[in-house]
Each structure stands twice: as structure tokens, then as C-alpha cells.
Description:
The complex is a heterodimer of chains A (about 300) and B (about 350).
Chain A: H1 2-45, E1 48-49, E2 57-58, H2 62-68, H3 71-87, H4 90-101, H5 108-120, H6 123-134, H7 140-149, H8 162-187, H9 191-199, H10 204-215, H11 217-232, H12 236-241, H13 253-262, H14 269-300
Antiparallel strand pairs in A: 1-2
Helix pairs in contact in A: 1-14, 2-14, 3-8, 3-11, 4-8, 5-8, 6-8, 8-11, 11-14, 13-14
Chain B: E1 4-13, E2 16-26, E3 31-35, H1 42-50, E4 57-62, E5 65-66, E6 77-80, H2 92-102, H3 107-120, H4 136-148, E7 154-158, H5 166-183, E8 186-191, H6 194-200, E9 203-208, E10 211-216, H7 218-223, H8 228-233, E11 240-249, E12 252-256, E13 262-265, E14 273-279, E15 292-303, E16 307-314, E17 319-325, E18 335-340, E19 346-348, E20 354-356
Helix pairs in contact in B: 2-3, 2-4, 3-4
Amino acid sequence: MSDTARSAGFWKRNQLKIAPWAFLAPGAIMFLLYVLIPIVQSVWISFHDWDGLGDKVWIGLGNYVELLDDDTFYVALKNNLIWLALYLLAIPMGLATALFLNQTVWGIRLYKSLFFFPFVISQVVVGLMFTWFYAPDFGLFSQLIKWLTGTEIAVLADERFVTLGIIVAGLWPQTAYCMILYLTGLNNLNPEQIEAARMDNARGWRLLWHVILPQLAPATFIAMVVTVIGALRSFDLVSIMTAGGPYGSSQVLSYFMYEQALSEYGYRMGYGAAIAVVLFLIMMVFITLFIVRMIAQERNR
Amino acid sequence: MAEVSLSKVTKEFGAVSVIKGIDLQIADGEFCVFVGPSGCGKSTLLRMVAGLEEISSGALRIGGRDMTQVGPSDRGVAMVFQSYALYPHMTVAENIGFGLRMTGHDKAEIAKRTSAAAKMLQLDHLLDRKPGQLSGGQRQRVAIGRAIVRNPDVFLFDEPLSNLDAALRVQMRGEISRLHQDLGATMIYVTHDQVEAMTMADKIVVLSAGHIEQVGSPLELYHRPRNLFVAGFIGSPKMNFLTVEARPAPGGAEVTLPGGAVVTLAGQIAVAGQMTLGLRPEHASATGVGDAVLEGTVKLAEHLGSETLFFVALSDGSEIAVKADGLASERPGDRMRVGVPARACHLFDAAGQALINGDLTR
């Protein structure tokens, strides 16, 4: 009797301190279990030679030294940088689409849905569609090029164009994503502010640049984050469209890691983990930048 | 010179007619207030003057020039918005100077005019702040500063005080009036608050359902309302309306009040019939002094210190408000004899048009 009274008292007294942790717990445990621990494990594995089944053999920085001598690694790194640079085009393209669709005409909801559609369908489907689109003989794009130039280009079989071809496929859904972010931002604009700007003689580009874009800054920030991260972890399209080919010329780090560690080319877990660690470090640079900016913004508020 | 003139101006949104043919002259330097209940079209009319809404038909002239088709930034007008519409990412100085920047003034000129406007509005110490760091009254001043700096011929205000608390509203009301005296510019001011209209205006335009009910000075509207709508809208507390029987009589109009008392109003009416008598609470007497007396029971007493407001139920069930001395001691349930002075009574015909105005300035 007195025991239960005391325990109820303890709960009453510490409720405010315990409650936040209780609410945090499910998410925190998941994050620990599926994110933090695997990161540590990956780093640990990257110092070993391991086929995934047998004994781990400690080789220190051996995997990293090998990586520095691996031509495919440099191809993948270079391709990731190209992805990063060109994928950012999704942001201005998304903005342009959003501005275009931000009007009230009959059936605008349908048009918005159609423009958003590529983001809804699976990346696998996007990859397949573009593969057909580029396909020599019957692909729409190849036919167009043939009609324009007289020669045919097999985009996905050409080392010069293959990465660009995949990025274009990736831009399609990414633009739709950025568009939705901007449409939401445009919805939240204060119409009186636009009118005030009109009275202040700001029109067209100047209105966009001085009044509308600054207010869309939060949307731009989120678009930037998802696009940069999307570019760095590009995997699905490469896997579906080329499997890194031809001759590894469309490799990116994440697909390279998968190929080394988990595919029919072998089960070099240690080597794959080393690639993953490198990719993780590159991502951390951007994620840190984003977080620093977010904290600075919150302080300003 | 910047007089504003509207002739036969209309506005339609699709099939809905919002402004139904407005003719209005606003003289140079005049402070004109558009007042009316919400949905009467007063804001739309202001936005049509600003150029933010197209004019469906009719003509708008500002300073003698036809502005019907001219863009908002070229009409020589500046507007203060209800939400202030400040640019949140710019400092106060940038907000005020933005219009000048967009019209291509050089930096030194912008800085000079911005600081002059800021000084006028006591914003000098806030020029580097962002709007988010300002109080409501300060934001309001920045919005006004943004209008002043462009040196417009006509200022437009769209319910600028409705987001402020009561004390600040009174203060800003005074500041805007002072600004009008200092600048001498034409100002058009939209509000639904008849107190703001009465205190600030040179000329009040009472609007209802897209047309003008009456135009006049505050006292003209108070003493000589043209119809029931204006009589009920202007003045606080609201004018009392009593259903009465009236007939022509030698020396004026004979009116039978609820309860049977008869009062004779000076003025001519053509026919007899059921009409509406208007009497303002401040003109009714709680002590029974007047040309006729209404018997009733006090339902509610509001003691405001300086005055007391009684709501009195009459024998026929209608209720009238009576403004009395602050020391009046009647309580709910007490009998009261309400005095009706004939010279303060308004008489309206069945269509709501005023036949006799109880104009106390005569």
C-alpha cells in the first residue's frame, strides 16, 4: 500500500523529466539500431579483409590504400561530382515549373498532378522508360537524334554520354519534387506583399528576384538538401539502366560499393565498407553545412 | 494638384456586380473616408483607385489625368495595406527605400529620403531592424514610411489600424491625422469603424452593397442622414428606431409614439401612414424632459462612469437605448419615463428615405 503510494509519487514528481525521453525513445532506439551502430560496424569492417562468411582478417588501412590505386574508384568519384553539379539543375527547373503552374485556370489541379507524377512512380520505372527512350532503332530520342543529325547515338552504350543520359532521367522525378516544394512555398506567399511590390514598381524578374525568391528561401533550402543527398546516393537508375557500364564508365560510389560487396563480382565486404565510409564522409561535409545553416537560422529567429 | 474623380465606375467579378456605378469627387488635400459594413465594396473601390483591381467600366482621373488604364506604380499613388505587407527579409531602411530603388534613384538620394521619412515617423533608431523584430505600431509606421518616401499625390489606406490594440489605434489615428496636416496630400482611407471615420475625415463616403448611400462631412451625416442605413451606421451607440403612425398636420407632422403619446415635428410630410422615427440615445432624456414621454422598464444599465447607458423596454415590446448622466441611479426593473425632444427626431418613410431630419445645428 505504502509502496504503491511511493511509486505513484515518484512518477508524479518526475513526470515532466521522464515524458520527453519516453516520447523520444522509439525513434532514438530505431536510429541507434539501424543507423548509428551500422555506421560504426561499417567503419570497423572497412579495416578488415572479409568475404562475409569466413574469419575477418585485420589489414588496417589496406582497403583504403587499394582504393586509392583503383581506377574505377576515380571514375565513380568523378561521376558523383557530375551528378551533384547537374542534379542541382532540378532546383531552377522545379521553380520554373512551379511558377508556371501557380495560376488559377480550369483543371490546374490535374496539370499539377501530372507534373508531379514522375516523382510518384518508382525510380525503376523511370529508369526503364528512359532506357526505352534512348534505345537505338526504336527509342524516341534516338529517332530524334537520327532525324536531326543523320547518325544514331546509343546513349547508354556510349562512354561519353552514358552518365549524362542517366542524370537526365534522374532530373525528371527530381524536378517534380522541387516543383512541389516550391508550389507549397508559393501558396504561403502573402498576396498583399506582391501587391505592395507592384505599387513599388517591381515587375517581372525584379519582382521574382527581390520579393518572391527571398520568401521562398525555406523551400530552396529543403530542395537543395534533398537534391544534394539524392545526387550522392544515386543508385537505382545506374543499377537499372546500365549496371555501371559500359566498362564501368557510369559507375557511382554507391553502385561501386554494392558491386564490390554484394554482387556476383564478389563478396569483398571490407573493400565495400571502405567505399561506403568514403561516401559517408563526403555526405557528412554537406550534412554538416546544412545543419550549421539550420542552427544559425533558428538562432536568428 | 491631385484631386481624384470617379465617374460611373463599376466592377464585376464574372457575373457578380460588386461596385455598381460610383460617381465621386475628392478634392486636392482632402481626407476622404470610405466606410460601410464588410462586403460593401469599400476595399475593392480603394484597390481600383490603386490600380490593383481593373475598372470594369467608367473612368478614374487623378490630378486631371485619365488613370483608368494606367499601372499601379505610375498613378502617383501609394498604399498602406491592412497586413502592412512589409518585406520580411529586408531591414526597415530597405523596406522604405525599395520603391525608390525600383524606380532607379541613386543610393545617396534613397538614403536621404529614407532617413527623412524615418525621422518624420520616429523610426530613425530602428532602421537596421527586420520587420519581425518590430511591434505592431512600429510596423504600421514602416508601412506608412514606405508610402511617404515615394512622395505620392494620393495616399491610400486599407483598414490600416484594424490589427492594432485599442490604445495604439487611438494613438495612430492621431498620428495619421497629423501626417495629413503636415503633408497636405490627398488621402483616401477605408474602414468599417465609424468612430475612425468620424474622427479623421473631411469627407465620409458611406457605402452599402456597391453603391454610395451618402457623401458628406461627419457632422452632416450625423445630423442629416439621408436614409435609415446612414442613420443607423453613423453614431455610437446606434440610433433608436421606433415604428410610429404619422400624418400631416397644421404646423408640421403629427406622430403617434408607441404607448399613445403624440409629438409634433417641424417639417412637411405629404401623406399619412406607418413610418420610422429615429432618435439618438444621447438625445433621449432619462428624466422625462421633452415634448413627449415614453413609459418603459429598464432592462439593462451600463455604467461607464462618465455616462450611463440604459436599455428600456417600451409597452409595445420595442426597446430603446437612452444615454444618461453618469450618476443616474435607476436599476434594471425600475420604471423610466423617457423624454422625446421633437427637434432631435428624424422621420423616415416606409422606403427608408428621410422625410424630416432632427438637425440640431439649425
